[in-house]
Amino acid sequence: MSGPDPGDERSDDSGESRRHDPSEAPSDGIDDPERGRRSANDERIPADASADDRDDESIVQRSGSGSEHDEVSIEDDGFVRWFFKTNDDSVVLVRDILSSVAIVAVIGLLLFGISGVWPPLVAVESGSMEPNMEVGDLIFVVADDRFVGDGATDDTGVVTHEDGDDHEKFGKAGDVVVFEPNGQAHQTPVIHRTHFWVEEGENWVDTKAEPEYVDGASCDQLRTCPAAHDGFITKGDANPYYDQYQRGGANTDVVQPGWITGKASFRVPWLGYVRLTFDSILGGMLAPHPGLETVAGPIGADTPLSSAGTVGASAGATGVAAAGTGAAMAAGRRRR
Fold first, then answer.
1. 313 vs 334, which has greater pLDDT?
2. Backbone angles phi, psi at 40, to 5 degrees
3. 200 touches 228 (CB < 8 A)
4. Cystine design at 333: which of 69, 112, 138, 292 (Cβ 3.0–4.6 Å)?
């Protein structure tokens, strides 16, 4: 005969053995007050824990499978924390838009700090500076007293084509400047190259001009000669005549330094189309702002100087205010 199975007897706390009843279900300790009970995640909860403690443990267990963002509320966390933590679709969309605007604003302020002018980016919409500037180019401009090259004229910070043998910009010698034709702020600004400096009363046609750029005319045949004041003679690289000739591109008087709003520094191809497209859609809905167009063709000999701003109007002279939100709004337009 075999003896009793050692596993069939167990000792209680009094040291007496008792026989195990096979019909008894195995104990997991839940009903044993000394052993406590187990939570759903197998963590032991003391038997003497209060009801509040057990409720708190249950909340932790239930929230463990969720996200902290699902638990935030305006009442419990305040509006600011709720706004940045909630997963509500509408709020997430607003957060994304605000983040994009903030990034654009930071970039705009950084560019402004470097350039010293606003807007620091301008879009070209027509073609008198081709091939050195193309339609749709985005041009970064700086104040005329920044990044001054050797041979700058007086205190202007501008190097002319005549003096710019060691200062090449956009494929040729000399600075390319943005200026207001005839000093009229309401006119569309022009971006052209400075060719040489003249002084008040100077017969610049006979002393400095290339004859072909005035179509062989003499000084007494030009309304801008002799020079009424000190300033620059300008010309678009693709244009046949000086801007100060009656049939020149911008058809402006000698450009005074005070009319210059910036110097072109470098270009980014194609990105200007973003600004131009935005303007074509919303230009008539917002406040007008001088654009930057390019004067590509000659004007009739009887065109008055005061009408120069109408040249290139087919490309659109009314723009969206450059200080608006978005990257497209940070760029003006310029006429070349």
1. 334
2. -65, -30
3. yes
4. 292
